[in-house]
Amino acid sequence: MSFESMISRRLGDPPACDKDAKALQFIEEMTQNADGVQQNVLAEILSRNAQTEYLKRFNLDGITDRETFKSVIPMVTYEDLQPLIQRIANGDRSPILSAHPISEFLTSSGTSAGERKLMPTIKEEWDRRQLLYSLLMPVMNLYVKGLDKGKGLYFLFVKTETKTPGGLLARPVLTSYYKSDHFKTRPYDPYNVYTSPNEAILCADSFQSMYTQMLCGLYERKEVLRVGAVFASGLLRAIRFLQLNWPQLTHDIRTGSLNPKVIDPSIQECMTRVLRPDPELADFVAKECVNENWEGIITRIWPNTKYLDVIVTGAMAQYIPTLDYYSGGLPLACTMYASSECYFGLNLKPMSKPSQVSYTIMPNMGYFEFLPHDPNSSGHARDSPPKLVDLVDVEIDKEYELVITTYAGLCRYRVGDILRVTGFHNSAPQFHFVRRKNVLLSIDSDKTDEGELQKAVENAIQLLHEFNTSVVEYTSYADTKTIPGHYVIYWELLVKDPTNSPSEKVLNQCCLAMEESLNSVYRQCRVADNSIGPLEIRVVKSGTFEELMDYAISRGASINQYKVPRCVSFTPIMELLDSRVVSVHFSPSLPHWTPERRR
Ligand code: AMP
């Protein structure tokens, strides 16, 4: 069978160009020989890192076979590695985890003790990740034609970076990528032309960056063929930005001048090549934006958009209805599955509906193992030790937690993502992203678990002591009806002395006290990114949580085992809670956040 017909049979239409054909062939080769590739990846990682302090601990003695690896190397969490990572952060340059020097830390949106996890990385890792990026458009071109005839309007941002005590950079993975030569000096590719200039993407001030990206996107509205951001929340933030800033944006377009709030010299310089007075365009944009009804605004302003390129799987699924509203139901393409630790794989059918999205893990990216996930297991040590399954041995319909071994030195590291196998592409399995473990609340890249919420409530309760008031029960809800979304905490109070009940002001302060004790990613989203709104407490009538229990029991919950859900989203429960609200309170100011880590 010719390669072309093989691609057509496997993936769809013929490749768009020679470069695409090569990329698609690479996918075929990797996935046809998934197990062989995995074996080589493991051998390569173990042999190059044989002399690291970490591997020497387990006396591998340079052995690189799978069976020995599995029998001697334990599965670990971030907390297990934290002391080693801290030593690297403090400046110890000896080969602790990796034989190759750690080039920087990628700061994960997953946190440990309230701070972003620090993921060590090595220089060559960007070559591997770039390779994965280079596969995305060749796959997309199989399904959407003519993407070389226009541009992508992508809202991409860098965030602040810090240095560890030992002088290594610590920054989010995409900040590292956008600042790398792989991105900045990428060769021209007609299928990958963005409306946003690098200068705007690389500006650390989020207002100036967003303003410029939006302005450029408006100027080139007819060229735009796809609109995107990394996550759905980011694209909605851009829409909200347009709602708030269209008068100034249209003023700039009308006059060909740049908003004086954009002071970054490199942006000012590059915008001289973009800005021109265009009263007709200004009138058009103003007419669309002044309209109260923003339904379908994306396709009205960017009429040639073929799809939205945003991740809407996992926690981002909550934004699908809002995106559908603003885009008039354009296809939502989730192209890849990746993390700070490792990039995992891509979606070979990017036009599939969000609920049907599966990611194919690319076996060359790292060594992947899968911990069977049993939602009913206690996770106690007395349970028999879990057996990890190899990439090609996972079973369809089963759920697993992803465990990775990376070139940068993470060995059998639990990522915390739960995946379900939906099928295979050649011998490489495809996974539906089920959820991240232990995440209760998420609006943007924040992830708040039950323990963090509990701690935040306990912190806030301190303020109620002098009013002899306690919180009888609580639950929470991620409210994404507004942009930005915000956390809602329902409280049932026991006020022991009604003549001395907590004032409005005190309850507002309770909101802030909760925010202060939430993790640094939450506070960064609140303070620096403005991607989460003020936390809200809704005080409900006494007896509400008993009603909630009655409701759950009426639906079959066991009275003995009933536990108050610490997060709710089921509409009838929300309606019950909201109908019992006696007062609402919002955080009066921003919590504390600085780029510096607390530890
Ligand atoms: P970070 O370490 O901050 O880069 O976040 C990585 C995490 O984001 C992953 O472990 C997943 O939990 C989540 N994530 C990344 N890509 C996707 C995706 N395509 N769908 C759902 N969740 C994703």
Please list the strands of the largest sheet in the order they lie side by side.
9-10-11-16-15-14-12-13
The low-pLDDT segments are: none
User: Helix/strand-derived class?
Assistant: alpha+beta
Rg estimate, integer Å: 25 Å
- Distinct bound molecules: adenosine monophosphate
Distance between the termini: 58 Å
Percent of residues in β-strands: 15-25%
Helix content: 25-40%
Number of helices: 21
Q: TL;DR of this structure?
A:
The chain is an alpha+beta fold.
Give a written overview of the molecule.
With 599 residues, the protein is of the alpha+beta class. Helices cover 37% and strands 21% of the residues. It has 21 helices and 20 strands. The chain has an 8-stranded antiparallel beta sheet with strand order 9-10-11-16-15-14-12-13. Strands 2-1-5-4 form a 4-stranded mixed beta sheet. Strands 3-6-7-8 form a 4-stranded parallel beta sheet, with helices on one face. Helix 11 (206-219) crosses helix 12, helix 12 packs parallel to helix 16 (320-327) and helix 17 (450-461) runs antiparallel to helix 18. Bound molecules: adenosine monophosphate.
